[in-house]
Amino acid sequence: MVLSSIAGWPGVIVAIIFLLIGLIRKQTILLVMGTVFSFPFTLYLYGTPRFGMEIFILTASLVGAMIAMRKGYIWLSWLLVLPFILFVLWLMKELFF
User: Fold this and answer.
1) d(CA 33, CA 46)
2) Are 30 and 70 in contact (CB under 8 A)?
3) Residue 76, CA distances (Å) to 7, 27, 88 in order
4) pLDDT in tens, 43-96
5) What sign results for the dihedral spanned by CA atoms 79, 26, 20, 14?
6) Residue 31, class by beta-carbon neighbours within 10 Å (0-12 exposed, 13-18 middle, 19+ buried)?
7) Do 15 and 38 contact (CB within 8 A), yes or no?
């Protein structure tokens, strides 16, 4: 039950909330927490036949967003978080609508 909460859609929603709040407040630690919550989701998608190693590009972009935020490139952090959010929205559209 706990694993499905972390790796499933609740974990993804928590990750996006942490990422957006971290970007708005310009706090790297919140981006770290968002990345940690998104990793089980990307690991789960790696195990599906449709997605392969390419899915880890999303996690790498979140790590890049953390580094960019740490260096003071706020606009780059927003750009690097955007693919993860768009991918999640696309996946929600494909699965639920």
Assistant:
1) 20
2) no
3) 27, 14, 20
4) 888 888 888 888 899 999 999 999 999 999 999 999 999 999 999 999 999 998
5) positive
6) buried
7) yes
